[in-house]
């Protein structure tokens, strides 16, 4: 499950930060910036789930999809749920004020992009063919 990848990076960053804290932003701004980023993730995730629901296909990555969702927030990004997880992750990094959490975002994103999204894209290409390839050529993977 993709959220577990983000959680592992986050927990590892928290552990390193506990033993060797290095701040990311001034303390006076860290909590507010972190809260804003985390709150910004909520409508993105909500719009993504609603788009899946309107299309009649499950949002759960463990279940087979029945259609290519291309409307709503999916007009701007092919992976709004992952974008929302990045915002939550970055928000927590700011909230905790940890450079370590932020630095671990890079390997998390590599694993998500190369290990999870690429696999999902292969599945969608095989299942929906040209329909998905057209969508993929028109809409960015992230933002």
Write the element-wise H/E pattern from the N-terminal end onward.
Answer: HHHHH
Radius of gyration: 17 Å
User: Any idea how many domains?
Assistant: 1
How many helices? The count is 5
Task: State the share of residues found in helices, binned by percent.
Answer: over 70%
Q: Describe the biggest sheet?
A: none
Note poorly predicted spans.
none
- The residue-averaged pLDDT reads 94
Number of extended strands? 0
Descriptive report:
The protein has 143 residues and is mostly helical. It has one domain. It has 5 helices and no strands. It is elongated, with a radius of gyration of 17 Å.
Brief summary:
With 143 residues, this protein is an all-alpha fold.
List the helices and strands and how they pair.
Elements: H1 2-19, H2 27-55, H3 80-96, H4 99-128, H5 130-138
Helix pairs in contact: 1-3, 1-4, 2-3, 3-4
Question: What are the defining features of this structure?
Answer:
143 residues, 0% strand, elongated
């Amino acid at each position: 499950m993709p959220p577990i990848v983000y959680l592992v990076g986050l927990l590892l960053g928290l552990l390193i930060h506990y033993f060797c804290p290095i701040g990311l932003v001034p303390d006076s701004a860290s909590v507010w910036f972190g809260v804003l980023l985390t709150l910004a993730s909520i409508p993105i995730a909500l719009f993504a789930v609603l788009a899946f629901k309107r299309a009649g296909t499950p949002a759960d990555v463990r279940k087979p999809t029945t259609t290519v969702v291309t409307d709503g927030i999916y007009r701007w990004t092919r992976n709004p749920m992952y974008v929302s997880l990045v915002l939550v992750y970055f928000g927590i990094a700011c909230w905790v004020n940890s450079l370590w959490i932020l630095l671990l975002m890079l390997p998390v994103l590599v694993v998500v992009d190369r290990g999870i999204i690429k696999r999902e894209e292969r599945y969608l290409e095989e299942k929906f063919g040209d329909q998905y390839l057209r969508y993929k050529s028109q809409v960015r993977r992230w933002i």
